[in-house]
Design goal:
This protein has two domains: about 70 residues, lambda repressor-like DNA-binding domains (434 Repressor (Amino-terminal Domain)); about 170 residues, Endonuclease Chain A (Endonuclease, Chain A), CATH 3.30.870. The chain has about 280 residues and is of the alpha/beta class. It is globular and about 65 Å long.
Length: about 280
């Protein structure tokens, strides 16, 4: 998806139509569209020819894109769960694995990368009431494996803003919720993880539209990616103006929320209350 989005930006910047791009790689304009949407694999020759057509001659710009295209063709570990992962969510899993920074705002639940297995199991059981126990366990396993991004040599940096409602909503019973809050307190001490709480007392705030995620990548030519999950699908707004808007909202949420230094005390206060 990242490769496709970057190819589209380069094509548009060069003022080249999908028809002309398709002709260059001996393909139809519809194939160019599918490539740009990340719905087909990337042949090395096609990507190289398109970069040449788009005027990308500098090796420092070409090589990262060529490497990214090669990486995009490698099956991800999450494909083991292909029967459980909807098509609209699979691209996100790849993006999450490749990101260096993830910024997230959650309203109703703890962000998935910060969930305990018990908390995740309770959520997934409620979300898939007809699913057999074995399927629920595989869904929990998938969610837990995603947390390995924190254990790699260059651990993912996560900046999460949680609405107070996500901490007050008791998921899975009192003990499950207490364990989840303790886990948040533990993770908040990691240098690569920032957790802020947006208290009820703030009232109206910058993200009234709901939860959002923004991913950033190491390659300077790659734009940030915005991910908006819905009940039966997801949106990936990719216009520069939209991305800037979501980035601005997340920045303002960081100002409106309690500072990270207050998070341990807030979580301790919640643990001191009946849940």
């Amino acid at each position: 998806m990242l490769v496709g989005a970057q190819l589209r930006r380069l094509r548009e910047a060069a003022g080249i139509s999908t028809e002309a791009a398709g002709y260059e790689i001996r393909a139809s304009h519809s194939k160019i569209s599918r490539m740009e949407l990340g719905r087909v694999g990337f042949k090395e020759r096609d990507v190289a020819d398109l970069l040449t057509l788009y005027g990308v001659a500098d090796p420092d710009r070409r090589e990262p894109l060529m490497e990214l295209a090669e990486y995009a063709n490698v099956p991800g570990w999450w494909q083991e769960y292909g029967d459980l992962v909807p098509g609209w969510f699979e691209p996100y899993l790849g993006l999450e694995q490749g990101a260096v920074v993830v910024r997230v705002y959650e309203v109703q639940e703890v962000p998935e990368l910060l969930q305990t297995a018990e908390y995740a199991r309770a959520l997934l059981t409620a979300r898939h009431p007809e699913a057999p126990a074995e399927e629920i366990e595989r869904r929990v396993e998938l969610r837990m494996r995603r947390r390995r991004v924190f254990d790699r040599p260059d651990p993912l940096k996560l900046w999460a803003v949680l609405d107070e409602a996500a901490l007050r909503r008791v998921v899975g019973g009192p003990e499950t919720m207490r364990a989840q809050i303790r886990y948040l307190a533990q993770m908040a001490h990691r240098p690569n993880i920032t957790i802020q709480v947006l208290p009820f007392s703030v009232g109206g705030h910058a993200a009234e539209g709901g939860p959002m995620t923004l991913l950033r990548f190491a390659e300077p030519d790659l734009p940030d990616v915005v991910y908006l999950e819905q009940l039966t699908g997801a949106l990936y707004p990719d216009r520069t103006s939209d991305i800037m808007r979501y980035r601005d909202v997340l920045n303002r949420l960081g100002v409106q929320a309690e500072p990270p230094t207050r998070t341990p005390a807030i979580l301790a206060d919640i643990l001191g209350e009946p849940v």
